[in-house]
């Protein structure tokens, strides 16, 4: 696997010595409102050089981590199934080689390919899902492979009670009814309930996939996304929750839904870069312990 020409800042290990492998999925073909998330992974790499590798939040540095950036997959934009297969195959290879797969989206549908691979290795997998949207529609405009359906497709794989959703503040009535019926563990609006969820999953040492849709953040913090929703959380709230979630047995993760061209100020890309930095450092701390 070849290193990307431009890597995320501090993520310049070779594949053989890496613990964590970044891979991008520049896909947004099922976006239902404002497209542009396909440009998120490359924007995060390019703009990451506006960051320091050192985090004063965690007193940790990316240069102390072994992270390999494999660049973006070449995906078929007109066929979601083929795109998901490519994502699944890359994640499966990373897992087979004993490394941690960290996916950069792209729209949120890309998570499904990664979860398919991780679930193949960890059949008792749980998902922690940070998002403004429930993503629990069975179909959207008669299409079942859509960013609006990604958690429903994950539920098809995992079954009831193994998807834990936070910050949800938007969705069709049927999606909320689906969650309230016990199919998922939904915590609307914020991170209330995350500590208890983490305690339970830590006690069971359950394998966990962490998916972060950046539109969980309030649009005042993060306007550069395809479907912004008022009433979101702050950066510091997200940071604290990422660090808490990463005390679990995290076996795969992703950050998605940055659409950089929808925020000409560049603020959203800067926020996404900082979230990714803090996520990598949190994952590295857990893997060392």
Write a structural description.
The structure is a single chain. The protein is an alpha/beta fold. It has a single domain, classed as Ureohydrolase domain (Arginase, Chain A), CATH 3.40.800.10. Helix content is about 35%, strand content about 20%. Strands 4-1-5-10-9-6-7-8 form an 8-stranded parallel beta sheet, with helices on both faces. The radius of gyration is 17 Å and the shape is globular. The two termini are about 30 Å apart. The mean pLDDT is about 95.
CATH superfamily: Ureohydrolase domain
Based on the structure, what is the oligomeric state of the protein chains?
Answer: single chain
Overall 3D form? globular
Number of strands: 10
CATH topology category name:
Arginase, Chain A
The description of the largest β-sheet is: 8 strands, parallel
> What is the strand content?
15-25%
> Low-confidence stretches at least 5 residues in length (pLDDT < 50)?
none
Q: Which strand order spans the largest sheet, edge to edge or round the barrel? A: 4-1-5-10-9-6-7-8
State the domain count: 1
How far the N terminus sits from the C terminus, by CA atoms, comes to 28 Å
Individual helix count: 8
The topology string of helices and strands comes to: EHEEEHEHEHEHEHEHEH
Judged by helices, strands and strand pairing, the structural class is alpha/beta
CATH architecture: 3-Layer(aba) Sandwich
Mean pLDDT: 96
State the name of the first-level CATH class: Alpha Beta
What percentage of residues falls in helices of 4 or more residues?
25-40%
Radius of gyration from the alpha-carbon trace, in angstroms: 17 Å
